[in-house]
Amino acid sequence: MKFNKVALSIACAAGFTVAGAAAANADTVTVKSGDTLSQIADENNTTVSSIQSLNSLQNIHLIFPGQKLVINANNGNAAVSTQQSAQTTQQASQQQTTQQASQQQTMQQASQQQTMQTTQQAVASSSEQAARDWIAARESGGSYTAQNGNYYGKYQLSSAYLGGDYSAENQERVANSYVLNRYGSWANAKSHWLQNGWY
User: Fold this and answer.
1) Which are the contacts of 161, defined by CB distance < 8 A and separation ≥ 6?
2) What is the pTM of this model?
3) d(CA 16, CA 10)
């Protein structure tokens, strides 16, 4: 009989070692005096066979007060897994939020830049148009049929420039080409006119 108790004690000690290794991330219960394995299983929403398997118990009717039993090895892992999953989801959500914010900012910057360019073009166009109108007023009073010797039309271009085509469209096209090639802009042409009395 003493031999059986010694063997049982050794077996229990070995079982505790194996169960202890398996229980690193598991829920455990300390056996109290009067507890049964079925009672512990019921209280912890598990089965006797699950507790027996997790703790490598040879005899399900032999547990001792103070003994620690692994109740659910998956709960610990599930909790860690759930926490890791939550962290991964949170990180993905933060990345998505950051990307969306970055895209919004990029779109706002592009929109602001486009608005600024449009405004600058409008200002440039209006100042260019004003300079063009100013030159036309000084050269011909704005008339497409004004003549002054060899010079003809709204911008008083030479007949050679106009190539014999005195239409309003050709006068506008040739005047734009002449001004852009010679001065770069109508505003520059106006500045030249103001300094020299001609453009």
Assistant:
1) 174, 178
2) 0.40
3) 10
